[in-house]
């Protein structure tokens, strides 16, 4: 995963994503260099349009946010009395558990 982050960093800096640049960047931040993984990543990224992937990845959560807000708005808030009863039950159960420990 470190090499993917390095590739994204190189992309954002406008640098070419190649083995040499990935090695230099990895070494500069103290990540051990695994040449096989770097070669595989460079080969895989040659066929990928990173800008398009980033646009689609950023757009997806934004599109889901209004739906989540609507679902949350449709759920009725539980009455305060029920909350108090639940808290009292939890408190009583906790005391019973402590009493069982001490006899």
Key traits:
mainly alpha; elongated; about 80% helix
Write structural notes for this entry.
The protein has 103 residues and is mainly alpha-helical. The protein has a single domain (2-77), classed as Arc Repressor Mutant, subunit A. Helix content is 78%, strand content 0%. The longest helix has 25 residues, at 50-74. The termini are far apart. The model has no long low-confidence stretch (mean pLDDT 78).
Set down the secondary structure blueprint.
Layout: H1 2-12, H2 19-28, H3 35-45, H4 50-74, H5 80-102
Helix pairs in contact: 1-2
Summarize the structure.
The protein has helices at 2-12, 19-28, 35-45, 50-74, 80-102.
Q: Mean pLDDT across all residues, rounded? A: 78
Name of the CATH class: Mainly Alpha
Rg calc: 27 Å
Helix percent reads over 70%
């Amino acid at each position: 995963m470190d090499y993917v982050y390095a590739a994204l960093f190189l992309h954002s800096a406008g640098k070419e994503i190649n083995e040499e640049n990935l090695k230099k960047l990895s070494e500069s931040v103290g990540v051990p260099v695994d040449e096989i993984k770097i070669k595989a990543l460079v080969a895989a990224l040659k066929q990928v349009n990173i800008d398009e992937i980033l646009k689609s990845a950023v757009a997806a959560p934004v599109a889901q946010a209004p739906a989540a807000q609507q679902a949350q708005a449709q759920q009725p808030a539980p009455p305060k009395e029920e909350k108090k009863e639940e808290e009292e039950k939890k408190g009583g159960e906790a005391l019973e558990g402590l009493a069982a420990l001490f006899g």
